[in-house]
Amino acid sequence: MKIKALIAFLAITTSVMAQDRKIDVESKVVTNHEVTIKGKRVPYSATVGTQPVWDNNGDPIATLFYTYYERTDVKDKDSRPLVISFNGGPGSASVWMHLAYTGPRILKIDDEGYPIQPYGVKDNPNSILDVADIVFVNPVNTGYSRITDPKANRSTFFGVRQDIAYLSEWVNTFVTRANRWSSPKYLIGESYGTTRVGGMAYELQNNQWMYLNGVILVSPTDMGIDRSGPVEAANRLPYFAATAWYHKQLPSDLQSKDLLEVLDEVESYAINKFIPVLAKGAWATESEKNEAIKMFARYSGLDEEIIRQHNLDVPYNFFWKDLLRHEGHTVGRLDSRYKGIDRMDAGMGPDFNAELTSWLHSFTPAINQYFMNELGYKTDIKYNMFGPVNPWDRSGDNSAESLRKAMAMNPYLKVMTQSGYYDGATTYFNAKYNMWQTDPSGKLKDRMSFKGYRSGHMMYLRAEDLAQSNEDIREFIKNSIPPAGTPAKY
């Protein structure tokens, strides 16, 4: 009987101690810190927690996890900029820009972005927190964000238009709760996050009546701009040239030049000569084809015969596999500075993304330690670096046009694009093409700018580019706030 009683007691105790593995719909932990940015002390508070997503009846159906950094020695919040930050995927947490770019704490990595041990974080002397407060937002199923109502329809969240709509509503609530309606406001998005913030700029203005001063597009997607056919094929060449230059695979006369000098030459060729040959297709003359093959090989580091076999349309995947095949390496997709090793040198594409495994190696332990040990947020929920968001409804992706309309409606609104030259997923030249095509009239182009960096998709992982890209954001913010009393009119 004593044994039975003990078993019963243990069962009851275990039941009482057990906790459901779920995130609180509403939560908040506030801590205070300071960081030295550009040689000056900046005190700040860090608010980490969850805020609901409501349905049309006002019932919570999901909760979004966020981290909000607010400088605490600033009294005039009305003129203090607020930056609302999103990463991409879709299905990616906000960890990347949060813990490696604009936030006050960044990864311990080497100067080129590679993992080192022991893992952890350190102060970010380049953070934009000196000039703007920042909130990092995790969409549903990323980070600690989750659907909380089991009856909620997943299609409410997982699609281009749905994502833009519910996140804009969430931002409205956040800005209201934080009492930041008077602040100059900015959206920053990386990768798919550029599709997100491009659409949100219009959604916030049109349906939330919230007007912005700026949108920052980091490593942008195609944002709904068509570039199929000859344009798509030709637009790859400048990226191929950048990567080949980095790995010293170009002819000596090109290799001896600076990267930007080489890219100017390749861009001019791609636009003015390569596209016309591709457009002619089978009707291009033999001499035109041969010259195009010769120039493609010169600028890409690939063999002429391979280019001929591809009819001048070499896919990215093959390039990543073939450029360093003779050395027994592949190159990375998101950052082609990174090398990989495949099971065999033969094949049409790499076995894995060399850069992504490196990044996950660095980020995952750091973000989990950071929330628990420094910001005091503890939960049994897994932090989803990448979360389940499929199937994703990709219909209605017209975010470049949405951004154009937002700019047309708001004379204050400016846009800056940031891209790494070695990014093969969202190439810098396609980012330029986005900028050229977003407003074909050219009436808005004086409010658009482009910044390029000698790194990849997450250009900020390289120490030199971390400093420069943050400085570019800092200047963009300062230059997009009009003098007091300036009317928003044409």
Give structural notes.
The chain is of the alpha/beta class. It has helices at residues 2-17, 95-100, 160-177, 192-207, 230-246, 252-255, 259-280, 286-300, 304-309, 316-322, 354-374, 399-409, 428-438, 463-479, and strands at 27-37, 40-54, 60-71, 82-86, 105-107, 121-123, 133-137, 146-147, 185-190, 214-218, 330-331, 339-340, 414-420, 448-453. Strands 1, 2, 3, 4, 7, 8, 9, 10, 13 and 14 form a 10-stranded mixed beta sheet that branches. A two-stranded antiparallel sheet has the order 5-6. Strands 11-12 form a two-stranded antiparallel sheet. The chain starts with a helix and ends in an 11-residue tail after the last helix.
Summarize the structure.
The protein is of the alpha/beta class and about 500 residues long.
What's the structural blueprint in terms of helices and strands?
Elements: H1 2-17, E1 27-37, E2 40-54, E3 60-71, E4 82-86, H2 95-100, E5 105-107, E6 121-123, E7 133-137, E8 146-147, H3 160-177, E9 185-190, H4 192-207, E10 214-218, H5 230-246, H6 252-255, H7 259-280, H8 286-300, H9 304-309, H10 316-322, E11 330-331, E12 339-340, H11 354-374, H12 399-409, E13 414-420, H13 428-438, E14 448-453, H14 463-479
Parallel strand pairs: 4-7, 4-9, 9-10, 10-13, 13-14
Antiparallel strand pairs: 1-2, 2-3, 3-7, 3-8, 5-6, 11-12
CATH class of the largest domain: Alpha Beta
Ends: how far apart? 88 Å
Number of domains: 2
Rg over CA atoms, rounded to whole Å, is 24 Å
The CATH architecture of the largest domain would be: 3-Layer(aba) Sandwich
Structural class: alpha/beta
- The H/E string reads HEEEEHEEEEHEHEHHHHHHEEHHEHEH
Query: What value does the average pLDDT take?
Result: 94
GO molecular function: serine-type carboxypeptidase activity
Signal peptide: 1-18
InterPro entries: AB_hydrolase_fold, Peptidase_S10
GO biological process, one term: proteolysis
